[in-house]
Amino acid sequence: GDSVTQKQGQVTLSEDDFLFINCTYSTTTYPTLLWYVQYPGQGPQLLLKVTTANNKGISRGFEATYDKGTTSFHLQKASVQESDSAVYFCALVLNSAGNKLTFGIGTRVLVRP
Amino acid sequence: NAGVIQTPRHKVTGKGQEATLWCEPISGHSAVFWYRQTIVQGLEFLTYFRNQAPIDDSGMPKERFSAQMPNQSHSTLKIQSTQPQDSAVYLCASSPDKEVFFGKGTRLTVV
Hints:
The complex is a heterodimer of chains A (113) and B (111).
Chain A: E1 3-6, E2 10-14, E3 19-26, E4 33-38, E5 45-50, E6 56-59, E7 62-67, E8 72-77, E9 86-93, E10 101-103, E11 107-112
Parallel strand pairs in A: 2-11
Antiparallel strand pairs in A: 1-3, 3-8, 4-5, 4-9, 6-7, 7-8, 9-10, 9-11
Chain B: E1 5-7, E2 10-13, E3 19-24, E4 31-38, E5 42-50, E6 53-56, E7 65-71, E8 74-79, E9 88-95, E10 101-102, E11 106-110
Parallel strand pairs in B: 2-11
Antiparallel strand pairs in B: 1-3, 3-8, 4-5, 4-9, 5-6, 7-8, 9-10, 9-11
């Protein structure tokens, strides 16, 4: 079935470092790929959506793209801040309504001041 | 807009007891979802309602777990005879169309 794989469990960075998180996906249909962010004590919230290969989604300094050839998609930010410390999840839309999701395991990002 | 409201935020139950978790979706949202979050498994889909009708419960454990949506303003997830492995954060989400909005979750601890 459709799935996403996210391998990085935790990333520790210093402020102004570059952040890169990668996921791979498997689907037989045209993918809609998402990045969610979860802050402590909160539910996940949508950060970015990418629906066209090699096009970029950009929000709050984060950039997401996907590569159809390698069936991978990634999230990056050029210069992280302490406030970016959170758990980041990649997700794949599973239904035609666009709202049933399957998530990667999540990457905990810790940014030290 | 208070967002998706989940109550209680924390619940501790003894092994074998029943736990009922409540969700109030955002008004006007037609779809309601339940997910379970653990460190080991991450976010797992449990079940999904659209316009109060059950659409997909493929993620629900076959025994002890049930979900209802008796009206458009709330949904419940009930776990009978809770076991320690049921300990998790249970997240409710609602969606008007394509974007999904999550609540803060209920942390269930089974002791």
